[in-house]
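Look over this record as teaching material.
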Amino acid sequence: MSSTHIAGMIFFALGILMLVFRRPFGIIFCKIGKRTWKDNPLGVPSRFTDFLYDEKNGPRIMLFLGIVSAIQGAILWFLPGHG
């Protein structure tokens, strides 16, 4: 089993966890994001960070990130020619 397959399994598992537990992961993601952007804004407009790290949007953001991570993991896991 190659390192690509192992990375795929990890991404796939994380994606499924983000989908199943999207509410608690979303709230944690938003709280960490708020704290990070408050310390180091990097010139990003506050409207964007207010939307992205609003705790009521957390489950929706985790749904998106979980789907993307699961698809990426499945592609890496079952990528032909790397085994």
